[in-house]
Amino acid sequence: MPKRILQGTVVSNANDKTVTVKVERRFTHPLLKKTVRRSKKYRAHDEANKYQVGDTVLIEECAPISKSKRWTVVEQ
Description:
This protein is mostly beta strands.
């Protein structure tokens, strides 16, 4: 099964080797027929600590690294 890849913005890099990435998705509301924006935050593994707040990154699904980390940063 292919791994999921999501694009988002780094909102925090306070932890060592970890970044928090905010991923936003847009969809049409089924009843109101209006475009709705929903966002979710993911913790991702950043081995080199090279990503800063505000960077746009791609994250890829991976095996669990810790209690909250299930994603790794692929590229910017």
